[in-house]
Structures are given as structure tokens and as C-alpha cells.
Amino acid sequence: MKIAILDRDGVINQDSDVYIKSSEEWIPIDGSIQAIADLCIAGFKVVVATNQSGLGRKLFSNEDLTSIHSKLRQLVERAGGQISGIFYCPHLPSDNCNCRKPKTGLLEKIEHEFQCSLKASPFIGDSVRDIQAALSHGCRPMVVKTGNGKSTLAELKRLGVNDFVVFENLAEAADSIISGIK
């Protein structure tokens, strides 16, 4: 089974310093919906692994999050693909849970759900947390320059982390995965 793991905010949709709190605020990045559909058409199951501490902060409700994810799923389905699962951490950073990236609890949940290993699976993110989770779990980390990607690249360099590949956006990363290039 081929699985591609995507962070959400900054990778699939535009990010916001004040959180994405409604489906109206959830705006896909150009090309990201078609990129997900293309991955599906190429035989990948696409899953989303996302920290959503806005729930714990009471900035939006479970119903708001469900509405956001319904919009994502509908757009991907219209493009010919499918989101196979959305896994999220609702906790605050101070909760010290196992599911908040950079910890690997979300990845473990994905493996349990699909009865598979994510070792060497592509994990596309725009934050240091994404890359740390990917590396800790044996996934193939990929950084996109959208969202927080450009500042993440500087931080990864400062930390001495260099075991990842870089793409302009999700569409470019998806094309690379599909064509089998790194």
C-alpha cells in the first residue's frame, strides 16, 4: 500500500497566524487539490496529519473542523481523488500529548487504521514539527515552500537537519512522488 502523508495548513490550504476557524477561511493553495487527486490516480492513499490546537484553544468547534474537512474532501472528490483519512491533534502544546507533531502519535494512528507501515512513505509539510515527526518515524520528509516553508528551511539549516527534499508547492512534490524522483 502506498500512502502519502500531508500536513494541512500551509501545504494544502493557505495558513493563518490567527488559525483557520471556518470553511469560509479555508482556501486551497493553487494546484493543491489537483495534486491530491493526481496522487490518488497514481495509486496513493492520501492522508492528512495535522495539529489543530485551535480546538483546544476554543477558537473553533468540532463542527467547524468537520465543515472544513468536508470542504476539503468534496473538492478533492470533484477533482477525481479521495482523502483516505484525516488525523488531527486537538491538544495545546502544553498538554504534552503523544499525538501533537513533532511526536509520532498521529503517524501511529494512521498505521493502525490502515494496518501498514509508513516507513519510507512521503510526508509533505511546511514546518519543523512535520519534518521532525517524519524523520522520527522513518518517513521521507519533504518540505514545501508554501505556508511556513521558507522560514522552516532556515530553521532546519540552523538545527543542522538536512535529510529532506524541497519543493515549491504540493503540486511539485506530488509530481516528483508520482514520477518516482526522490
Please supply descriptive tags for the structure shown above.
6 helices, 182 residues, 6-stranded parallel sheet, globular, 6 strands, alpha/beta, 18% strand, single chain
Describe the model.
With 182 residues, this protein is an alpha/beta fold. It contains 6 helices and 6 strands, in the order βαβαβαβαβαβα. 37% of the residues lie in helices and 18% in strands. A 6-stranded parallel β-sheet has the order 3-2-1-4-5-6, with helices on both faces. Helix 1 (32-41) packs parallel to helix 6.
What is the topology?
Blueprint: E1 2-6, H1 32-41, E2 44-51, H2 62-78, E3 83-89, H3 105-114, E4 122-125, H4 128-137, E5 140-144, H5 149-159, E6 165-167, H6 170-179
Summarize the structure.
The protein is α/β, with parallel strands linked by helices and 182 residues long. Helices cover 37% and strands 18% of the residues. The protein is globular and about 40 Å long.
Query: Which structural class matches the secondary elements?
Result: alpha/beta
Major sheet summary line: 6 strands, parallel
The averaged pLDDT comes out at 97
| Rg, Cα atoms, Å | 15 Å
Low-confidence stretches: none
Indicate the percent of residues in helices: 25-40%
Count up the helices. 6
Query: N- to C-terminal separation?
Result: 18 Å
Strand order of the largest sheet: 3-2-1-4-5-6
Overall geometry = globular
The percentage of residues in β strands lies in 15-25%
DSSP, total strands: 6
Series of secondary-structure elements, N-terminal to C-terminal: EHEHEHEHEHEH
